[in-house]
Amino acid sequence: MVGITSVEVKESVDELAARLRQAKTPQEKERLQVLYWLKQDNAPSISAIAKATGKHRNTLQTWLMQYRDDGLEIMLEVKKSPGGVRVIPQWAEDALAKRLQDPEHGFTSYGAVQAWLSETLGIEAEYHAVYQMTRHRLKAKLKVARPQHRKQDPAKRQAFKQTLPTISNC
Which parts of the chain are coiled coil (predicted)? Predict the structure, then answer.
């Protein structure tokens, strides 16, 4: 018969209610709620539970099949995908972090970082990947000193820095 489940819920209603109150994630609560509804005396159909939870009935059947085959803990386990493979390996990232800490051998641009990775470490990476790693994961800002005119007098510049705090208080 469609909508009738062949899963026998082993836990009592009180146990399920207690687990529901202690559930930490929304996914865990949803799955426990399904078992709670099925354990009640006048249990609704799978289709009605699916409509109430906002999930497809096949999703609920998958959860119940996991429960029937492997138990409650496996059903409550939510798998997380590992994500994509990084283009720049961890050892290269560590070498770049070490190079960025050296004040004498800095980089003027992310393109220079990309070229250094290619020439020194043999890693071909796109500009965006280099930028993301350098700026966001390594928290490095590529700073370049402002250009100074060749005719500028260093003594006058130093004198201006000395008088700057007194002028700016106006």
Answer: none
